[in-house]
UniProtKB/TrEMBL annotation:
Protein name: Tripartite tricarboxylate transporter substrate binding protein
Keyword field: Signal
Species, as recorded: Verticiella sediminum
Keyword Signal: yes
Source domain of life: Bacteria
Annotated family: Belongs to the UPF0065 (bug) family.
Signal peptide span: 1-27
Record has Signal as a keyword: yes
């Protein structure tokens, strides 16, 4: 699709769903209060027990505690690169009682052609928070610093095995490739080894079967506390807090790169402005609670709420940036 065509498609989607123009805002009007949810289904494109699932269940609990949502159940629909979860939204167009966790992987999978769905065909409601990717080596690794690791990778990008979960080209792969490119590494020559989970890739790293692991922050705390790994850099704009406060960012170490993987909320196509305004208002209330802040701190996520008036622009920028990195990796056509 051409850039002009892309903008036209976005405009058409905005008209079809009643979305305001970017930047116009979604302030609730008297009409917005005319829609109230019934029994809500919150679909998670991952299995029970994962970080995505835990965040969704906390959000559902807090939503019900506001007294504005009679019931919200969380259903797990893993598999199919997110298509199984998207199928639920497909079956309920225009129904504001169906929501889904929106992840950066949805964009990656679309760009890679893994799925035949376009995120622009649905209703993005909000971005909730950012998570970051860390560069990890074994505690026994000869690479004590990021500088030493980068020197070796510039000389021979293919020599070191990098473990990622769960697939080549996903947000974790992009999360390490983006700063490596900024550091002068030929990312088209990287040796990437996919694993079913970050727990498996960490086990392989500690066992000496991998040289490097790229993983998001919730997966670091256990092996870090056990002294089994060394974290050389994190892709956040500033240092994280708590137990990861000692880990320097890429920027601190002379590499001007930030890599973000976002999570948010997606609704079915055709939602009305009243439905979107309701959820925007409720989510803004939920993310201000101490319980939600505790979830963010526990997983080393950073809250960054973006409402429906701006989230489409954000996703469009992320789509273009991700596509550029995937092209550099040789996974899609430039």
């Amino acid at each position: 699709m051409t850039q002009a065509g892309f903008r036209a498609a976005l405009a058409a989607a905005a008209i079809a769903t009643g979305m305001a123009a970017p930047g116009a805002g979604w302030a609730a009007s008297p009409a917005a209060s005319s829609w109230q949810p019934g029994h809500v289904e919150f679909v998670v494109p991952a299995g029970p027990g994962a970080a995505l699932d835990a965040a969704a269940r906390t959000l559902a609990q807090l939503a019900q505690q506001t007294g504005k949502v009679p019931a919200m159940i969380v259903t797990n629909r893993p598999g199919g690169a997110g298509v199984i979860a998207l199928n639920v939204l497909e079956q309920h167009p225009g129904d504001g009682n169906y929501l889904m966790t929106l992840t950066s992987s949805l964009l990656n999978n679309q760009i890679l052609g893994v799925v035949d769905r376009d995120y622009r065909d649905y209703t993005p409601i909000a971005k909730l928070f950012d998570e970051y990717v860390a560069v990890v080596v074994s505690a026994k690794s000869p690479y004590q610093t990021l500088d030493a690791l980068l020197k070796a990778m510039r000389e021979n990008p293919a020599a070191l095995n990098i473990g990622v979960a769960t697939s080549i080209g996903n947000h974790i792969h992009v999360g390490i490739a983006k700063p490596l490119k900024a550091a002068g590494v030929d990312i088209g020559k990287l040796t990437i080894v996919p694993y079913k989970s970050s727990a498996e890739s960490m086990t392989a790293l500690i066992g000496g079967h991998l040289d490097i692991v790229a993983a998001t922050t919730p997966n670091l705390l256990g092996p870090l506390q056990a002294g089994a790994i060394r974290v050389l850099a994190v892709s956040s704009p500033q240092r994280l807090q708590g137990e990861l406060a000692s880990i320097p960012t890429w920027r601190e170490q002379g590499v001007d790169a930030v890599s973000v993987s976002a999570q948010g909320i997606l609704g079915p196509r055709g939602m009305t402005p009243q439905q979107v305004a309701f959820w925007d208002g409720l989510l803004r209330q939920v993310v201000q609670t101490p319980a939600w802040e505790d979830v963010l701190q526990r997983n080393q996520w950073r809250g960054d709420y973006i409402g429906p008036g701006e989230v489409r622009d954000y996703l469009a920028r992320e789509f273009d940036g991700t596509r550029a990195i995937l092209a550099d990796l040789g996974l899609v056509e430039p």
